[in-house]
Amino acid sequence: xxxxxxIADQASIGNALETRLERARNALAQAGTPVAFxxxxxxxxxxxxxxxxxxxxxxxxxVLEQHFGACDLLVADHEIEIPRLxxxxxxxxxxxxxxxxxxxxxxxxKEQVSAITERAMRGELDFPSALAERVALLEGLEESxxxxxxxxxxxxxxxxxxxxxxLKAKGCHPVLVTGGFHHFADPVAQMLGFERVVGNRLAVxxxxxxxxxxxxxxxxxxxxxxLEEELERLGxxxxxxASGDGANDIPMxxxxxxxxxxxxxxxxxxxxxGRIESxxxxxxxxxxxxxxxEWVEG
Length: 298
Fold this sequence. Notes:
Blueprint: E1 2-7, H1 10-13, H2 17-30, E2 35-40, E3 47-52, H3 57-68, E4 73-76, E5 85-88, H4 99-105, H5 110-121, H6 127-137, H7 144-153, H8 160-169, E6 173-181, H9 182-192, E7 196-200, E8 202-205, E9 208-213, H10 220-234, E10 240-244, H11 250-255, E11 258-262, H12 266-271, E12 274-276, H13 282-287
Parallel strand pairs: 5-6, 5-10, 6-7, 10-11, 11-12
Antiparallel strand pairs: 1-3, 1-4, 2-3, 4-12, 8-9
């Protein structure tokens, strides 16, 4: 069984909804995954649910995108449930910035560091090497620049607080796991309501960054390992939601029941069975069929 949900925004799709659905039906049938049922959800009236007897979630998501365009969607191989675990990336997912790029701006190196970040997130560079290269460029920067950067540059993505608060109210355990830094992740987690934080630590000496990391690197393997640790603690049958935007999030997205690529780089999108193209993370709550009157403001 395959359950697919997508946000069918009437403002953008309008009268073309039936036409697009019919074309998607035909394409899915030709691919050997005929549609058994299609209809709008009761609680979230702009969410279209499509049921299929069989299929592969990512492949079904690809077909739906071909006919509905880049949209917010989720495809699962079971009845969709509220997850008990939420593991998320931070940069460009829970917040709208890449912290290391913004911090580099205080050293006059944003353009250089941003170019490395972009290539790493696209999977064109080895993440640990790219991280070490960028951190080395920050050698000598005053530690106080981090607090200024937090205050002046770092903002949560729209809907991030509501997403985390609502999932927690439904009994879900939220974990922030990042290839970024605890200097940023700890206050962001407190602001948004995450209950555990895993990330890298910038080495500091004499009030300045040394250009190195303090401790082991938090990378793609770390993200998946943290997900598996938390899932083992919760026990068999617990559904897992994950969100991220870059290539280093792929193992985590693939391991989750609901792996959401948020406005993601192509490799991450291609690996995910959930995709968010709008900016507001409350789209995930709609796709989980949580009524808006049950959303919790952060």
